[in-house]
Amino acid sequence: MKTEFVKSIDSTNTYLYEKALRGEFKTERAICADTQLKGKGRRGRSFYSPDDTGLYLSLLLFPKCTVKEAEKITTMMAVSAAKAAGALSGEDVRIKWVNDLYLNGKKISGILTECSPDITDGRPSFVVTGIGINILMPEGGFPEDIRDKAGPLLKRIPEGYDSVTDFKRKLAAGIIDEFEKIYADFPASDFIDEYRNLGMLDGTTVRILDGPSVTVMGIEDDFGLKVRHEDGSIEILRAGEISLVL
Predict the structure, then answer these.
(1) 127, 140, 131: which is closest to 110 by C-alpha?
(2) 2-197 maps to which CATH number?
(3) At what angle do helices 72-89 and 164-183 cross, to 10 degrees?
(4) CA pair distance 81, 114, nearest whole angstrom
(5) What pTM did the predictor assign?
């Protein structure tokens, strides 16, 4: 996949989305930035994107799939990034359903997937998926509002890398390589066992945002999260409908 590297950008997702929307980009590609000035998170939130210490990567895709099937792209990116980050760092990177990566109890990454506004026969004309990964602790630490939740992938750059930029480029290449392996069979869900194995919630008690505490029982074949309420009732939670609080 053709990959563009830039020092700074408003948002890697927005850049690819707007280029595809205007018809300027018609083939699949990736962009990787050292910093984002207007990083985007889920539910309209901003994504903290400091210079030099993070990796910000987005992919523009033209999948032949329905909007419902496109929801799998987030989980595909999660598996790809967890595997690549774990392989390069030697750390046990885990997925918190549905779109966050965690290490040692701290969130190190978030994923945002966006479909084109034009939908024909239930199929988007393009999809953009982006990931931000905290590689190192930023100077002065994380902002106060996320300080207790956020963490870095690394304490220091491993031997064998010339710089943090060198590590980030290899990580970006690793994520893209892992993603393309899964994407080759899309919209099949053959990677679901990897997603399950990389999960961190099975058997734990979590709280639904603004809701009750539940016990996680596992991941369904359609990537729904199976949970048990205190009264013993079972519910399948769907991506995009709720958030979980550890």
Answers:
(1) 131
(2) 3.30.930.10
(3) 140
(4) 18
(5) 0.92
